[in-house]
């Protein structure tokens, strides 16, 4: 199947800001994406819903509130999500890369603002229902909240404009283990449900996001900034940068979350393929994302036949995405 590019794959309105809910686990990488979104005139962040992953759910909720205070955006509500995966059990926490607090162990002050009284699921359902066809959900963590919202109100699948997901490792090694990417392994059942829901879904896998590298010399520029958000970003990235040195053997960091946001802001930087996407939920390959690109007409049924299609990012203009990330995170005056 030929590659499909921006306008055919993602048709976001350019005449007005796109309303987005960020469903995330901030987390250093997701924190960078949140800061980038708040500095991007193309989008309006109307809420953040939190989920375990980089740290436990109460911790990432606290991190989201802290980020909004640093950015002067405390009007944005934060709704706390699930504390366990869809199938239950102990959540997989990536503290080895993000620190015990999720933000590189930088000991942030307790936020003065409070989380919403609504759960993440209820916030997603209510907001998407309030703005039918207008809300894009940018999912930067495990898909537990989203699967719960889809199950609670089936109409949300049709009412949401699009879901842009950071997840999966398509025909490449995972980053949680050789089979799986971190967001998907946190809740494979939820990911499989969401990918098969029939919602308009765009998936940015780490096979694409690992092509975008923010180098150490760029991160070092943040240390001399007079802007609190930039200084905070520099501090939280120290541990993340050291982990990449040990794990991936380079001086810099992958910017997975910002790359996912770039797919929304600058869709022409990516190309896509469409097909059915399933997630393995059992055995040694639990969390594996296997994509049927439609290259063959199958004889008979299999677990991909008849499933709704999603758009999976296939190529990326990494230099242009990096330029966008640098502009929004480092070269901005705010």
TrEMBL record:
Listed GO biological process terms: purine nucleoside catabolic process
Keyword Metal-binding: no
Keyword terms of this UniProt record: Glycosidase, Hydrolase
Cellular component GO terms held in the UniProt record: cytosol
Presence of the UniProt keyword Hydrolase in the record: yes
Family: Belongs to the IUNH family.
Domain of life: Eukaryota
Protein name (record): Inosine/uridine-preferring nucleoside hydrolase domain-containing protein
InterPro entries on file: Inosine/uridine_hydrolase_dom, IUNH, Ribo_hydro-like
Entries under Pfam families matching the protein: IU_nuc_hydro
GO molecular function: purine nucleosidase activity
Residue ranges of every copy of the Inosine/uridine-preferring nucleoside hydrolase domain listed in the record: 20-322
UniProt organism field: Selaginella moellendorffii (Spikemoss)
